[in-house]
Fold these 3 entries.
Entry 1:
Amino acid sequence: MQVPPEDPATVCAVLERLDALLAQSDTAALRAALGAQAEQLGRAIGQFEFAAAREMLRTQLELKEAR
């Protein structure tokens, strides 16, 4: 499956934000945003289950947007 290229500026912004969080080991922000789902998300990413991780994130986004 080919994924269409994203806007380079958007990709850079996301990567820079991720870099900053990793540099700070800022898992607290992730836990605050996702609660118990943060650990499940981390496990999914660690096991290269990216589709499952994405689904978890999208579910959380939908829940937060509905509020």
Entry 2:
Amino acid sequence: MSSRVSKIPENQTKQAASVASKVLRDSKSTKKAKSLAASALTQRKEVKKGGAAYVIRSDKHERSLVANTASVQSVNEGTEKYDKALRRLAKK
């Protein structure tokens, strides 16, 4: 089974937050729907603070994941170190 990870564009997290807000304000929304909507708003807050939202898709499942700012910075720093090491090795 293969998985694909892709970053969710900023405008999609904004749209999801807008829909989530409407669900929370709707008195006819179920408890489960409101719970999911609250989760979407929390994810949006992390993205606005500098985090990143990703979707992980496999043949049978789809999950969203939000990395907070510290995690995103850590990955970026690790990537930079890895790139520097590869450049040094390429010069040898």
Entry 3:
Amino acid sequence: MDLDKAIYSGLYATFFYMKHAFPYLKEAKGSVINFASGAGISGKPGQSSYAAAKEGIRGLSRVAANEWACSLPATTRNMLPETLVHRCIRSEANSV
């Protein structure tokens, strides 16, 4: 996968979604669940751009959780971003 494509469609898309959704989520006490991948954890050959984008999403979620916690009352901190990491989903990106 092309690095620009992976970063723009994965990491940048997640960043801008979270940035623009936060005020509405804050008001509605909504939450964010981002998706990462085991590819970044296991370092699978041939998936460097995909893994980089997904690991970026994991880092972005951790930073956002800390930043958002500072601007939320303690009773609404259940809306902080979480990241799910999948490991064994077959797709065109990981087929050999």
